[in-house]
Amino acid sequence: MRRSLLFVMLLLFAGAGFAQNADAISGIWWNDEKTTKIRVEKKDGKYAGTIVYMIPAKLVNGKSPLDDKNPDTSLRSRPLIGLQILSGFTYNSNKKEWAGGKIYDPKSGKTYDCFARMDGEVLKLKGFVAGIRALGRESEWYRTTL
Predict the structure, then answer these.
(1) Domain ranges of the chain
(2) For 8, which DSSP code?
(3) What phi and psi values does residue 143 have, to the nearest 5 degrees?
(4) Residue 57 carries which DSSP code?
(5) 3-state secondary structure of 21
(6) 2-144 CATH fold
(7) What's the predicted TM-score (pTM) here?
(8) Per-position pLDDT tens, the chain of length 146
(9) Partners of residue 122 on adjacent β-strands
């Protein structure tokens, strides 16, 4: 009986550890240039990231710059602060990565397939094209607070 109870307890703690790994991506992150902060959180079972802050030097007359490079002209007047730039990430515990996501680059107006991995307290993202991970660019984000 005691062995069974111990086994069940170990399973519960192991399950909690896996869930914690998946949520490690959640939080506030500086982009690689430390000009923008992105909040990553779980929405509808998938991880998404939204711009929540820009350094004052990036503001235009004290206001958020606009998404003026968006290929959809009807979206070019929306502010970058509040814009969701990461979407659709799910955690793959075998590969220890978040995959199946998309990243939007407001500088170019382009959206790329993307995956992410943790390296200590650094979030490494790689956006790529045509389903080929080797054809892409990596970015490192740093955990911070709002």
Answers:
(1) 2-144
(2) H
(3) -60, 140
(4) G
(5) helix
(6) Lipocalin (2.40.128)
(7) 0.84
(8) 555 443 444 344 444 444 458 999 999 999 999 999 999 999 999 999 999 999 999 999 999 999 999 999 999 999 999 999 999 999 999 999 999 999 999 999 999 999 999 999 999 999 999 888 888 999 999 999 98
(9) 119, 142
